[in-house]
């Protein structure tokens, strides 16, 4: 199991290399949800999401030989940009396998950070393709979520929340493969076990909830959601264990509920988040979570990498 020391070590490692993102108070949205609401703004992190936290930590623990061979990973977009960004800073070649229908701006950003992008199939096709390329070129695979160093790096978000709001009572986090919520949950529960940790998944990509029901990690035949950043086709072995141990509840939100949350965050807080980043607030707004009135609550806004064309479509369909 992940330890607090491992997360604290990751925090020391990334200090000065990444932003310490703000914890913003929202009176207006707090009134709507009957909470004392704070927003952890990971959309302001380098590359536009929380993902570089884990990648920096993972790459720091690679051997010189693993770095020399070059990196390969899979991603719908945010992990792709993070891996490309970190690899560029470290002078390491990087290859990223992304779905053929990936958000164009995420693909372009990944290329601009210097990575080779391979567009291939849908979310369920990415891992087999990456393994094929890895074996052919003898590259070093960086898992997007199911890796102890990745999880520890993402856990630094939880440390920052506790440092900025020690009296927090509930934290809502979107779940894709589970790396972010695993790290946050461990970071917080190992210090303040009374804090509620609530995971949020899209109805069309509920791998973690289905895994919890089955008692083991499960794979999805397909994913279908506007929140591409939460469309992992399976729950990780390690993330499943951490979620089972530390997360109090996992709830589902619809795409319509995500759209409404995204629009309100723009309108009331002037925050342009991507659908995955709005999912945590969507659960609170839609009443999927029952909290005591006035509870000091944090919604983690995990990223803001939204394509302008996608944003236009989302706003017009709301």
Average residue-wise pLDDT: 96
Number of strands: 10
Radius of gyration: 18 Å
Determine the N-to-C terminus distance: 42 Å
Number of helices: 15
Low-confidence stretches: none
Biggest pleated-sheet summary? 6 strands, mixed
Spell out the helices and strands N to C. HEHEHHEHEHEHEHHEHEHHEHHEH
Dominant shape: globular
How much of the sequence lies in strands comes to 5-15%
Q: What is the structural class?
A: alpha/beta
The spatial strand order of the largest sheet comes to 1-2-10-7-8-9
List the helices and strands and how they pair.
Layout: H1 4-14, E1 23-25, H2 27-33, E2 36-41, H3 52-60, H4 64-69, E3 71-74, H5 78-90, E4 94-98, H6 104-112, E5 116-119, H7 126-137, E6 140-141, H8 148-154, H9 156-164, E7 170-174, H10 179-189, E8 196-202, H11 207-214, H12 237-246, E9 249-253, H13 255-269, H14 275-285, E10 296-301, H15 308-316
Parallel strand pairs: 2-10, 3-4, 3-6, 4-5, 7-8, 7-10, 8-9
Antiparallel strand pairs: 1-2
Helix pairs in contact: 1-3, 1-8, 3-5, 3-8, 5-6, 8-10, 9-10, 10-12, 13-14
How would you describe the overall organization of this protein?
This protein has 318 residues and is an alpha/beta fold. The protein has helices at 4-14, 27-33, 52-60, 64-69, 78-90, 104-112, 126-137, 148-154, 156-164, 179-189, 207-214, 237-246, 255-269, 275-285, 308-316; strands at 23-25, 36-41, 71-74, 94-98, 116-119, 140-141, 170-174, 196-202, 249-253, 296-301. The strands form two sheets. The chain has a six-stranded mixed beta sheet with strand order 1-2-10-7-8-9, sandwiched between helices. A four-stranded parallel beta sheet has the order 5-4-3-6, with helices on both faces. α10 (179-189) links the parallel β7 and β8 (196-202). α1 (4-14) crosses α8 and α10 packs parallel to α12. The radius of gyration is 18 Å and the shape is globular.
């Amino acid at each position: 199991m992940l330890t607090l020391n491992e997360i604290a070590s990751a925090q020391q490692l990334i200090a000065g290399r990444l932003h310490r993102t703000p914890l913003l108070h929202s009176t207006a949205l707090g009134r709507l949800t009957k909470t004392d609401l704070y927003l952890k703004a990971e959309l302001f992190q380098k590359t536009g999401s929380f993902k570089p936290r884990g990648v920096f930590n993972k790459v720091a623990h690679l051997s010189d030989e693993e770095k020399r061979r070059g990196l390969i990973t899979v991603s719908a977009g945010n992990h792709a940009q993070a891996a490309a960004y970190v690899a560029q800073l470290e002078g390491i070649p990087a290859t990223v396998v992304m779905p053929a229908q990936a958000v164009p701006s995420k693909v372009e950003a990944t290329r601009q950070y210097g990575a080779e992008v391979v567009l291939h199939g849908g979310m369920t096709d990415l891992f087999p393709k990456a393994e094929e390329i890895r074996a052919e070129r003898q590259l070093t695979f960086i898992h997007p979520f199911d890796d102890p160093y990745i999880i520890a790096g993402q856990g630094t978000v939880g440390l920052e929340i506790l440092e900025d709001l020690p009296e927090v009572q509930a934290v809502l986090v979107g779940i894709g493969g589970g790396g972010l919520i695993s790290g946050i949950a461990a970071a917080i529960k190992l210090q303040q076990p009374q804090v509620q940790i609530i995971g949020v998944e899209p109805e069309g990509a509920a791998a973690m909830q289905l895994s919890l029901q089955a008692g083991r990690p499960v794979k999805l035949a397909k994913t279908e959601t506007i929140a591409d950043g939460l469309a992992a086709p399976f729950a990780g072995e390690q993330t499943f264990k951490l979620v089972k141990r530390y997360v109090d509840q996992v709830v589902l939100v619809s795409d319509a509920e995500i759209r409404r949350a995204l629009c309100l965050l723009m309108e009331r807080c002037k925050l342009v988040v991507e659908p995955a980043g709005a999912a945590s607030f969507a659960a609170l707004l839609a009443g999927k979570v029952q909290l005591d009135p006035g509870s000091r609550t944090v919604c983690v806004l995990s990223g803001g990498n939204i394509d302008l064309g996608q944003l236009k479509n989302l706003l017009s369909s709301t």
